[in-house]
Design goal:
This protein is an alpha/beta fold. The protein has a six-stranded mixed β-sheet with strand order 6-7-8-3-9-10, with helices on both faces. It has a four-stranded antiparallel β-sheet with strand order 2-1-4-5, covered by helices on one side.
Amino acid sequence: MRNVRVTAAEASRADGVSPMDGVSPVDGVSPAVAGFPAVGASSAAGVSPADASQSGTLQSGTLQSGTRVAWAGGGELMFEARGLVKRYQLGEVEVLALRGVDFLLRSGEFVVLLGPSGSGKSTLLNILGGLDTPSEGFVRFRDHDLSQGDDDLLTHYRRDHVGFVFQFYNLIPSLTARENVQLVTDLAAAPMRPEEALELVGLGARLDHYPSQLSGGEQQRVAIARAIAKRPDVLLCDEPTGALDVRTGIVVLEAIERINRELGTTTAVITHNAAIAAMADRVVQLSDGRVASESRNAVKAAARDIQW
């Protein structure tokens, strides 16, 4: 990477984590904390660190692009949330963002959390991602209780196990697409190469372009590449198409779809756009801080076939 000065504020926006998340003062990579294995120890695709180091590059096209069979529901339980309540105090007013939410997410599953603004979907995603903790209830990632985690544990959980994609891309303008992704791969234990991650989202020809030289959809795909380059166990997407037009949004959804299908990355997408629900294995509808309904798609729609 070029010797480019990056401010702490810019670094904090790079992956939804604090500037020092997961950074050891010695070498930038710290060991597992509180029983969390380092990233790559149990990859989303079931590849061990040794296998990952020997495999070189990901083999795209593991499944045919036309495969649209809904997830069968047999993966290991990755997340278990029970009785989640989240309160915010705004002066003398107490706001209940979540009101007793139960939620399960299994390995390899693609789930859409659907609901209007204020329904609690972003709050739930933030708790799953270790960006926030519940006021009541618990959330477990595998056998780790995130609801009782301190800042150190949650920092390492986010760094080693979670990829975030937000509505706004949070790219560092002074870095190329390749360098934006490399910010994350330099901290990960068994990452893919930045070029590999960008190829996976269709940006192999835009490696050395700066954000100002990329369209909105291309910038969002760089953000997706950055999120998945460390081989996270789960990809959490908060309104990933919210700032995009329909055509560009579909391209972004195709990239997320491919990550879930080919890498096996457990994926949760929150949106207010009901059309996107058709591409999910399971759809969880939230309303007023509660789970209003839950349904499964027997057959998933391809991202390219979605219209809104």
